[in-house]
């Protein structure tokens, strides 16, 4: 077993604690599909940790050597870690989308990407080609006995949870139509007050234009859509995430505009044609989940200009709605001639954690910064979704100030104000932390944090399991993979332990 050193405490690493060339190596494609028992482990997997961690993200950053312009255009690759009896089994598999199969057969890029990937041949080869490739690369959830790979601009792909094989598209008993969007950030209401306390999955879709249609979906435990309602809001909306409370769905309409002409004429991708307007306010859209809430119509309130990709949570208290979100001063641009691997972190403003407090009676919004450290990918205990939470977990920069790659996991105690930081710097780069409650949990932070860490020193990835109660301790376990996994996006954990079916590579 190779010795693997990561710095456990932030104080042991200098402030400038990353090397951009080492960070870049995590953006190499992983073209192989694996399945094996993980036998290179530091520490010990908790014997009462049973279930499956699923992760999704772009696994291909090139097509037969033709580099994609941005990772967000990469084909989705699902990773699964199955925990049973103190052991862990790993497998990864690409989602066999229509576009993936076509491009693998052709050996070249056939589709334009939302974030700037173009077909070979210059603008003439791309002009008026508005086909969208469903890349299924953003999130993966297990709900209603179905494993779903999600990408916000199209319908989900249905997967076999045993071996990750792609089974087809999921339309929820034809409620969705071909090409309908189903966002990549569903929220799981652990205790729906309008359904006898049963859990529900709540999700949304947007259809942007001069006005934008927002559709809310609610799915029961069986995976059936039991509620759907659509609402029109003024203006173009680019919305990636949302939050819920027992009574409301809350979305932030970022102050952006879309000019379709550069996209239509093949000069750049659709995402590159979205421009941030710092002179316009951010709008907070409040949509009632049920007809008999305190408001029966959509409310839109304004706050200071900023951009939000991800929210941590929301809750209702004292007739106000509290929303914790990671905010940026503006939307970073993806220029046609830029190279994402040459990102100048120092030139960009960091994402920071803010709290917004909405008073519907007074039609006001106030805000305060909760955390100035550069952070992203927030997470709370799943039982606290839509409810008052004490602890927040985030991917974070190692240094307390400035912008940088995510190299640490940050825990914030919103009662005591205490911060705990576990750092993988200088060689390690972390992913989204997933909180898994312990089966015998008493307190809100009884459980584990799981994060996939790219180890640039060995060009491999490790699944790091932390004791969520105390991040100052060394990891409970580090599971060393035999290879790297490209930087991913989102994932989820289910207590289900699926039958392990090997597949042919």
TrEMBL record:
<keyword id="KW-0560">Oxidoreductase</keyword>
<comment type="similarity">
    <text>Belongs to the carotenoid oxygenase family.</text>
</comment>
<dbReference type="InterPro" id="IPR004294">
    <property type="entry name" value="Carotenoid_Oase"/>
</dbReference>
<dbReference type="Pfam" id="PF03055">
    <property type="entry name" value="RPE65"/>
</dbReference>
<keyword id="KW-0479">Metal-binding</keyword>
<keyword id="KW-0408">Iron</keyword>
<protein>
    <submittedName>
        <fullName>Carotenoid oxygenase family protein</fullName>
    </submittedName>
</protein>
